[in-house]
Design goal:
The structure holds 2 protein chains of 2 kinds. Chain A has a single domain, classed as Fumarate Reductase Cytochrome B subunit (Up-down Bundle). Chain A contains 11 helices and no strands. The longest helix of chain A has 38 residues. Chain A is globular and about 60 Å long. By secondary structure, chain B is an alpha/beta fold. Chain B folds into 3 domains: 127 residues, Fumarate Reductase Iron-sulfur Protein, Chain B, domain 2, CATH 1.10.1060; 157 residues, 3-Layer(aba) Sandwich (Rossmann fold); 112 residues, Rossmann fold. Chain B is 54% helix and 6% strand. Chain B is globular and about 75 Å long. The chains are: A mainly alpha, B alpha/beta. At the A-B interface, helix 1, helix 3, helix 6, helix 7 and helix 11 of A face helix 2, helix 4, helix 6, helix 8 and helix 15 of B.
């Protein structure tokens, strides 16, 4: 591993994961050290049972059905973005360990095809969704309300996606090599296998990891913390 | 503005900070879904009235004075200093907000803009920039609470004519409007004037209720002003009266915000548990009808009639079915507005707007959606159990030449009651 790759795809990955985890925990701690107002802010009608409240919380936080009524395009793209994000997360888990259940059923070639289609679709869907959000930000009133962070985050995510899609569609690195690299990270001795080190797409991978690291580092201190806070907000919605 | 003054005003945000507000400060993504939820933004197109922008003004102060991001990379988060321009914007957007919380309903994170507006009002008051008219009205209410003995004779005198009207209406020369009656079951809190006293008196008389009239009006201008101390003082006048009369419950007239203050805010603000129930008169009227305590004529109103869900009665208090139940007892042609219930549009008059003459043109303009909603029903009568809504609907009726009649539920019931 050259020194730059070692720094970015090695050391910085640990830093990013640590900042992400401790930073998020710190933000949650910041919320909880402030006294809660005893005013109940719930809207009506509200669920009567705890189970009903939990169900509503999940529905509101993951599917935000009321958004569909006022801005159907936004609802679809944001839903695709979030579902795509979950899809991308699950897809990357294959770089830790093979999904043996599916792999056994499909065989090596079948699994590769399956990963190409699902991963490829998710990558494209995410890119389209983020592009929509970026274009939307340049329109009034969204741009009147926007702050630099709004553009920066979207562009950062778009760059991560472009690089990721490049690796998926044009790269010559395969899952076994990625897995070797990830396992080296897990063993705290980051190293690229030869196939990556000598690949022409190595720098695309390093750039993908670099931008992803930056996103993870910025996550807790940006509006992305809504990924956690949305549950608190939506729980307040039905408090009695 | 000097630095000390800036810090004092920004410091209000720190003093008023609570967990809910901190969530809201941190999680808004400025997606602006709320733009389509706010009648003020939809009708003016002015970003100043976009709920997320309203909150963003406060968020910029928060970032500037209370976050590391605001200190270390202010360019990214756009922290703002407290200056005259910011206070001007804050004043315009804050006292214009009706507090309908329709934006909260549509927000994917359920952010309550009124929580920001409450802090904004506190900051403006600290800066000496609170609404003058609301401050005067709140101040007058507090003074009345402090010196009620001076007002008692005036109230008794005012009620004499109303009592006569009551006796004529119910055909009973002994019918009366009790005040200061110890041991009454319920303390009824009306509005200034007699228009919410007479119909209630008719209903209570027919239901043989053991009631007494509060010497205080339900409206709480301290709440509209954004001064919690005054809002508590104004509500406490009624609480203390109820305590001294040892009533079992307080019944608030058809006034949305007054009910919200007493039912949902007072205990948390004053940090005391109330020993009696708080109810709205609509709930009580529905109960009287269901229990057969009052009987209504079978000769129902034939003109088409619609119902406006006041935000503080519907979305913010949960009374959707009781008003409709009563209306269906007295009206033959009830037509729903679209949308209705929790999705209903604000009329544009709440939040103290009807009491602020400088916002008259604004509230007429922003009432356009409500006008269209009513017109689409084809109704000739609009019923609404909230005084602010009715005053706004009256203004809309006049300015848009709608030719409709606006009424309360109490009036419908009092007119339909069989004596």
């Amino acid at each position: 591993m050259d020194w730059f790759s070692y720094l970015v795809a090695g050391i910085l990955v640990y830093v990013a994961v640590a900042v992400f985890l401790f930073g998020t925990a710190f933000r949650i701690y910041q919320w909880f050290r402030v006294t809660r107002s005893s005013v109940k802010l719930g809207l009506f009608p509200r669920p009567k049972s705890t189970l009903g409240r939990g169900f509503k919380l999940v529905k509101d936080s993951f599917f935000y059905p009321q958004v569909r009524e006022v801005d159907a395009a936004m609802w679809i793209f944001v839903l695709l973005l979030h579902l795509g994000g979950i899809g991308a997360f699950v897809g990357h888990l294959r770089l830790f360990n093979e999904f043996t259940l599916i792999a056994n059923a499909l065989g090596d070639e079948g699994m590769a095809q399956f990963a190409m289609w699902t991963g490829g679709t998710v990558g494209i869907v995410l890119m389209v969704s983020v592009t929509y959000l970026i274009l939307r930000r340049f329109k009034s009133p969204y741009k009147d309300l926007a702050i630099p962070e709004d553009y920066l985050l979207l562009i950062l995510v778009l760059v991560i996606l472009l690089l990721g899609n490049h690796l998926r569609f044009f790269g010559d690195i395969h899952v076994a090599e990625y897995r070797e690299y990830i396992h080296s990270l897990l063993a705290f001795s980051p190293a690229f296998p030869e196939a990556i080190a000598e690949s022409s797409t190595k720098w695309v991978l390093v750039s993908h990891v670099l931008t992803a690291n930056l996103l993870f580092i910025y996550f807790p201190f940006s509006k992305l913390i809504h990924a956690v806070g949305t549950f608190a907000g939506n729980l307040i919605r039905s408090e009695v | 503005m000097d630095e000390k003054a800036q810090k004092t005003i920004a410091g209000v945000l720190d003093k008023r900070m609570n967990r809910q507000l901190l969530y809201y400060l941190d999680i808004c993504t400025r997606c602006s879904i709320c733009k389509d939820a706010c009648h003020q933004y939809v009708t003016t197109g002015d970003v100043l009235y976009l709920p997320a922008y309203r909150a963003e003004i406060i968020r910029r102060v928060y970032k500037k004075y209370f976050t590391r991001s605001g200190k270390f990379y202010p360019a990214l988060s756009e922290g703002s200093e407290v200056d005259e321009k910011l206070l001007d914007e804050l004043y315009k957007t804050t006292y214009a907000c009706t507090g309908c919380r329709r934006c909260m309903y549509y927000c994917p994170f359920s952010i309550d803009t009124t929580w920001f507006m409450a802090v904004a009002k506190a900051m403006l008051i600290t800066a000496g920039r609170g609404s003058q008219i609301l401050a005067e009205l709140a101040g007058a209410a507090v003074i009345k609470g402090e010196s009620i003995d001076l007002f008692k004779d005036i109230i008794i005198e005012m009620l004499k004519d109303t009592e006569k009207e009551l006796q004529e209406r119910v055909g009973n020369p002994k019918a009366n409007i009790p005040i200061d009656k110890k041991g009454a079951d319920l303390l009824y809190v009306a509005l200034a004037g007699t228009h919410t006293i007479l119909p209630a008196a008719v209903i209570f008389h027919q239901a043989k209720a053991n009631w007494t009239l509060s010497m205080f009006e339900a409206a709480n201008y301290g709440y509209f002003l954004g001064d919690v101390k005054q809002a508590v003082a104004i509500a406490k006048r009624i609480i203390d009266e109820a305590r001294s009369l040892e009533v079992k419950e307080i019944v608030i007239t058809e006034c949305g915000h007054a009910y919200r203050v007493m039912q949902f805010l007072y205990e948390a603000w004053a940090k005391e548990k109330l020993p009696f129930k708080i109810r709205g008169i609509v709930e009580l009227m529905a109960e009287y009808i269901k229990q057969g305590k009052i009987n209504l004529t079978q000769d129902k109103i034939k003109e088409p009639l619609t119902y406006h869900d006041p935000c503080q009665v519907g979305r913010n208090a949960g009374f959707y079915e009781e008003p409709r139940y009563i209306i269906n007892q007295v009206a033959a042609d009830f037509r729903e507005m679209t949308p209705n219930r929790e999705k209903n549009w604000c009329c544009g008059g709440g939040g103290g707007l009807v009491a602020q003459p400088d916002l008259d043109d604004f509230r007429i303009k922003t009432g356009e959606i409500k006008v269209e909603q009513i017109k689409k029903t084809g109704a000739r009568i609009v019923v609404s159990p909230c005084e602010n809504c009715r005053l706004q609907l009256d203004s809309l009726n006049e300015k848009y030449n709608m030719g409709i009649q606006i009424t309360s539920i109490m009036d419908l019931v009092a007119n339909a009651i069989t004596i």
